[in-house]
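Structural biology now treats backbone shape like a language. To illustrate, our science desk offers a sequence and the tokens encoding its fold:
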Amino acid sequence: MKYSYYFALLLLTLTSCIKDEPQNAECDILEAWVEGDNLAQHFSQETDMRISEVPTTADELTFTIKQRAALPPLAIHFRLTPGATIVPANGSVQDFREGPVTYTVTSEDGQWQRVYKVNFKETMLPSNHYDFEDFELSNNSKYYVWFNKADDGTKENIWASGNEGFMIAKPNAPAADYPTVPDENGFDGYCIRLTTRSTGTWGKTFKKPIAAGNFFLGTFDSQYALTNTLKCTNMGIAYTKEPVKVTGYYKYKPGEVFTDKDFKEVASRTDEPTIYAVLYLNHGESDAEVMLHGDDVRTSPYIVRTAEVAALPATDQWQPFEMTFEGSKPIDATLLANRGYNLALVFSSSKTGDTFEGSVGSTLYIDKVEIMFKSEE
């Protein structure tokens, strides 16, 4: 009898725990894909049919196709946060030929919603001239983001920075105090200003005392900010021409005190900036997608060409810079034409900022960047 009583009490306790467990309040799209052999013909590569690891701050998902007009109505499949629902229904057939379709994701507890636009855009080569005149505040109005205007007037979000990660360290900082900001005193119009910032108490706690100003072709995903910071930077976007040279203008002033990853002064060192680029295969064995990050963008075996500005002396006047791509690995012309290579172009106010070494206050200005391709020479 005694044991029956305690057994009943245990069941009651377990039932209560299950009953009182809160429902999920997240409402994110984690992954999106199109499936079917009949649809593969509309994509340059099979991996273009899937968008994996959707950034937590994204509100637009864009698939790249050969021709929009030839695209039939189709179904998008989504992987959502547990318990979330989506409207229009997951896997329902929609017509994307006239533009993006809006999806609304609702959390399991019904209290939260997120709106996404899903679109299909034709394969195109991004502009090779970058003046950095087009920017705006992020969706949460915390920091600046940059975009290029496509021929149809839509925004191409091909540039990224570590601003989103800095927001975790200093959520109350004004946008003007973030590491990467626009500056109206460019070589011509606006330019990019990259400044190495202190991450304050948060940075000292997590052994990440500084945040170098950085700017690169690609995307930033903050989900790894606390565990593996270098994985946050998805370096590179697909290009269909072989780059041979990058030119532009810069100014630079190093900060006064160089510190190591423990934020201890290293009197013998002076901070310096970096500008470099790599061209790499974006598919590996078994056609698996390859994306380089901050931890392997200089060392990956998939790299076929590299370029780096040898020296960037401190200067308060605009000076030209130039770097030429080098490398002897063969480039497959057919694969290149079908977006089989990514180009990563990176700017940073502290060359060793990826290991959290540098000088708070180091500032690099960048403007009038041009990428020259083999077919243009």
